[in-house]
Write a structure and sequence with these properties.
This protein is an all-alpha fold. Among the domains are: 1-43, no CATH class; 52-194. It is built from 13 helices and no strands. The chain crosses the membrane at residues 59-78, 84-102, 111-134, 146-164, 171-192, 198-217, 233-253, 259-277, 282-299, 311-331.
Amino acid sequence: MISRASLTGAVSSGIISSDQADKLVSYLTLQADNLGKIHATEKLHDPEEVRFTRGFHDIFISLGILIVFTGYCVGLWSPLSSNGLSTAAVAGVAAVIVWLLAEWFTKKKKLALPSIVLTGIFGVAMGLVGFGLATQGVSKSALDGTPLTVSSLFALASAVIFYWRFKVPITLTVIMAGVMGLIIGQISYLTNGQVNDYLSWVSLVSGMLTFAFAMYFDAKDVNRETLNTDKAFWLHLLAAPLIVHSILSDAYFENLTGLYALLSIAVVFVFGAVALVIDRRAMLVAALSYLGFALAYFLNSADFSASQLTATSLVLLGSFVLLLGSGWNVARRIVMRPLAGTALTTYLPPIRN
């Protein structure tokens, strides 16, 4: 915006009159206000904006990290293990390397995508440390749920420390995955490995707990402006498949029928309604695969070949995603109408144009 001093000088030089200067100031002020509103609207345009990368530099560094650890696993794991180092020791060295890289790329440089990659590698490495310690010198026949318990405990504890140090949002998802692994390991130990009968319940409880934590962070940042929205995004991305799979998995692995196909469609619509209310598309993604199976089941009665059935199902599923994605704000406005004026809306993102 032109400064007031410049305008005063232009008036003194006879370039413009005092009246013209006042009108120009009013015009430029109005333009600045409108531009600020446009920028604010653009900032809120995508309520699920997640900080993955600030440019190709982040992708390039992440690629380098993946190459380094691929080389470490493929080229060095066997030689180091054959020379007397245990799995725990080799994985521990990898974890130390990750920590040192995180000190630079995460703590110092604040790079988002490399931090996500390093968090995942660190969790896996520390899980392998626990697994290696639990299985060292134990015969295969003697294994029970102890290795999974110890592995999950190591991954969980290390993820907590990693989060305390680096504050990477996706680390919370690793923590919740570690909790789930710990529960499954304990059930496997108590039931002598007969854990399959309890997996659906563990998945459901873990998913609901993860969803509750995600909503906690969402409620702290309804305008989606801080790192709390990133934390919530990753937790939603873990919670949704856990909940959906616990409800629908038996239908597809045992006896898919018309009733189960209808149930799948109903679950997808329920998840869609919840996703619209909380303004989280990530909640809906997990249910899409089951919707695809349901569509394929109903289309199977038609005289389609296998390739035609697959293609038609994918086209219908993709069309559904495109339609919902294009009209997301309109659909959300409709779903939110019954909640207008209630206390619940204070914990939810505002309706956007």
